[in-house]
Amino acid sequence: MLSELDQLIGQLDVGVTPSQYYLLGAIQEKEPCSISSLAKKMDVTPSAITVMLDRLVQSKFVSRYHDEKDGSQLYPRMHPILGNK
């Protein structure tokens, strides 16, 4: 739930931009989700999502994993402390 995400991010006292916060909520809402589906949802380019994900990975909010069926497809995954389903 987004309210739980609000509380956790507030407790961690980290700098998350509004766009990154929205991206975290979109990932949490519908995991697994592709980079392209996130880009459509946020009305930005896939490369913009990749940049935001890079920063979220660096901050350990999300990780990336390869699809078992299509190894070239990467999906973001919420860090378990942030409510990974």
Question: Which descriptors would you attach to this protein?
Answer:
85 residues; mainly alpha; Arc Repressor Mutant, subunit A; two-stranded antiparallel ribbon; 52% helix; globular
Summarize the structure in words.
With 85 residues, this protein is mostly helical. It has a single domain (2-82), classed as Winged helix-like DNA-binding domain superfamily/Winged helix DNA-binding domain (Arc Repressor Mutant, subunit A, Orthogonal Bundle). Helices cover 52% and strands 12% of the residues. Strands 1-2 form a two-stranded antiparallel ribbon. β1 (62-66) and β2 (74-78) form a beta hairpin. The longest helix has 13 residues, at 46-58. The chain is globular and about 35 Å long. The N and C termini lie close together (10 Å).
How large a portion of the residues is in β-strands, by DSSP E?
A: 5-15%
Give me the CATH architecture, please.
Orthogonal Bundle
CATH class: Mainly Alpha
Question: Could you give the count of β-strands?
Answer: 2
Number of helices: 4
Strand count, sense and barrel status of the largest sheet are: 2 strands, antiparallel
